[in-house]
Specification:
Elements (H helix, E strand, L loop, with lengths): L1 H26 L3 E4 L2 E3 L7 E2 L1 E5 L2 E6 L1 H5 L7 E4 L4 E4 L1 E6 L9 E2 L13 H12 L8 E4 L2 H4 L6 H7 L5 E4 L6 E3 L1 H6 L12 E5 L6 E7 H12 L3 H17 L2 E8 L4 H11 L4 E6 L3 E2 L2 E2 L15 E9 L29 H13 L4 E5 L2 H14 L2 H7 L2 E4 L8 H7 L2 E4 L24 H5 L3 E4 L7 H8 L11 H15 L17 E4 L16 E6 L2 E5 L7 E3 L18
Parallel strand pairs: 1-6, 2-7, 8-15, 9-10, 10-11, 15-16, 16-19, 19-20, 20-21, 21-22, 22-23
Antiparallel strand pairs: 1-4, 2-3, 4-5, 6-27, 7-24, 11-12, 12-14, 13-14, 17-18, 24-25, 25-26
Length: 574
């Protein structure tokens, strides 16, 4: 009898050990990253040395010693060797696929961004170019105020020089284009067409003939038709190139104001490209003379790929101060009585807000002028209680005009301001420029007022360049610290898309979207920031990018774990 019970105890012990061993193998992390300076972006615990990943999520954060002990026989170990790790950057405002429909980009003589080339320079450059390129070649180039505001350089003058080449000249900040007859034909715009709601077509004085000047929705609707003439394969190639570059820069999420292509083509391109980062596609519906086409995105797939989703809608309420289109409370310098203008009637704006209250789709509004911001805040306050709006998290894209006297109301209504640091670095607009007061940034004051705040590129996608801009603004009272800038690019952007429970910080339970950086962005001199790259980028617990170097950072289940200095905080400079 004793022998029987001893044998039973032995079998039970062996079985228990087998079960324990099996459970350990199943619950051990897939990755441990140790020996680094891990910025979690979590205010409760901003820095740790290590973290563990199982499946697509983070399962532990802590010291190197704590995390190293979690590794199992199949765990891949990443010795950070002091490198800095951050949550994957989330670009809260981009426009994809990148690039326009140009077959040939016009290189005008170098000029500052605001003024651009002169009319004579544009005409001379075009005249030389059309002699060397076959008829039908689409020509596109960037112009500034010298051409946009010159009534002597319009469709007729472009037709004289390039009658058989479609030509589109546009402002680099995206508000204002001039096109010739061939380009208008390709855009499906004729003299008999009324301008779409939200935009304008310039016309020859005392004539219905179009003069080639296109503004706001009149411009973007035409450019979208032009872009759609390129084959899907071209856009797929561009989107894949964007994805590869994004991973190299540590970007793991992008929020795309999708107005460059028609909805069905956008979804086809997204499906074919299979971007390896999270892609939020935000509808930017175009308009006709009868109104906004709210239904044009209704029939597209809401989840075209595993990492892409269609969610939200954006409208552009005004332009920018550069060309004088943003609606301001005070008149523009040197333009008595001119305050800018809204793209839409006030009642149309009210309808946009009413749709937001009754729809599940989040609302984004391009708002630049302080009068535009004040108007929308006032309409929101009239239409529903603050609590109803806070649940909606209405976004002000750019939000330049959310002046200090509007901060309290914006906070109460739950407004999320998505700022773009590159908009404030314009050498053509120095402190003495007449537009300087209008173009002053509001970054830190928004944060300190408690207004939800995120960063997006809307231009150069390099997050480190934009962090440099956000931390070196002209007004020292508005600059962000680097930690604040990174949080705005991660936690702020996640909140702006209702994803703060899943991403934005390197915390237990969050998605393992992260970047191991080539240098410590919290300590390097400011000029060095734009040169930062990711050495390893992870999306959902998968290594989707690893820089080519002497030896890979990740090692598959070595027999012994290399010990890291548990007090290490500074990475080795490379």
């Amino acid at each position: 009898m004793p022998t029987f019970f001893c044998a039973m105890k032995l079998h039970l012990l062996i079985a228990a050990q087998m079960l324990l061993g099996s459970a350990t193998a199943q619950t051990a992390p897939d990755y441990v990253l140790t020996g680094g300076k891990v910025f979690t972006a979590d205010v409760a615990r901003p820095y740790v040395q290590a973290l563990a990943v199982r499946g697509e999520r983070i399962v532990a954060v802590g010291t190197t010693a704590q995390i190293a002990k979690l590794a199992g026989p199949r765990t891949r170990r990443i010795d950070l060797q002091g490198r800095t790790v951050v949550p994957g950057f989330n670009d809260a405002h981009s426009h994809l696929p990148p690039g326009g429909a140009s077959a040939h980009y016009i290189a005008f003589p170098k000029a500052d961004l605001l003024s651009g080339p002169s009319a004579a320079q544009v005409m001379d450059t075009l005249a030389a170019l059309v002699r060397t390129l076959p008829p039908g070649t689409l020509l596109q180039g960037e112009i500034g105020l010298q051409v946009l505001q010159d009534p002597k350089l319009r469709r007729a003058q472009l037709d004289q020089i390039a009658p058989k080449h479609p030509v589109v000249l546009h402002a680099p900040w995206g508000h204002g284009s001039v096109a010739n007859s061939e380009a208008l034909r390709l855009m499906n715009i004729s003299d008999n067409d009324a301008a779409p709601v939200g935009g304008t077509y310039g016309r020859v004085e005392n004539s219905p003939r179009l003069n080639g000047l296109l503004n706001e929705y009149g411009e973007w609707a035409g450019l979208r038709v032009l872009n759609s003439r390129l084959p899907d394969s071209t856009w797929v190639r561009r989107l894949r190139a964007y994805g590869a570059e994004s991973l190299r820069l540590g970007l793991t999420s992008v929020q795309d104001m999708a107005g460059n292509l028609p909805p069905d083509q956008t979804i086809r391109v997204v499906k074919a490209a299979q971007l390896p980062l999270r892609h939020r596609i935000i509808a930017l519906p175009m308009a006709t003379s009868r109104g906004i086409n709210h239904r044009e995105w209704a029939s597209v797939a809401r989840q075209p790929t595993a990492l892409a989703r269609v969610e939200g809608v954006k409208y552009i309420l005004d332009a920018t101060p550069l060309e004088g289109g943003a609606l301001m409370r005070r008149p523009y310098p040197g333009r008595p009585g001119w305050h800018g203008q809204l793209n839409f009637p006030v009642d149309t704006v009210r309808q946009m807000l009413r749709r937001a209250l009754t729809s599940s789709q989040p609302l984004m509004l391009h708002i630049v002028g302080d009068s535009s911001a004040s108007l929308v805040l006032r309409l929101m306050s009239q239409m529903a209680p603050d609590s109803a709006w806070r649940r909606k998290r209405v976004r002000f894209e750019h939000g330049d005009g959310v002046a200090p006297d509007l901060h309290a109301r914006a906070k109460a209504l739950g407004i999320v301001v998505v700022q773009n640091p590159s908009h404030y670095i314009n050498p053509a607009v120095d402190k003495q420029h007449a537009l300087a007061p209008i173009l002053a940034a509001s970054f830190r004051s928004l944060l300190e007022s408690g207004v939800a705040f995120a960063l997006g590129s809307d231009g150069p996608s390099n997050p480190f360049l934009n962090i440099l801009f956000a931390t070196t603004l002209a007004d020292p009272k508005e600059v962000l610290t680097r930690e604040q800038a990174v949080r705005a690019y991660t936690t702020g952007s996640a909140y702006a898309e209702f994803q703060e429970k899943d991403k934005g910080t390197l915390s237990v339970g969050k998605l393992a979207d992260l970047a191991v950086l080539s240098q410590d962005i919290f300590t390097v001199p400011p000029p060095a920031l734009p040169g930062t790259v990711s050495e390893l980028t992870m999306v959902g617990g998968k290594v989707v990018y690893e820089a080519k170097r002497g030896a890979p950072l990740s090692q598959a289940a070595p027999r012994s774990v290399k010990k890291s200095n548990p007090t290490a905080s500074k990475p080795k400079q490379k």
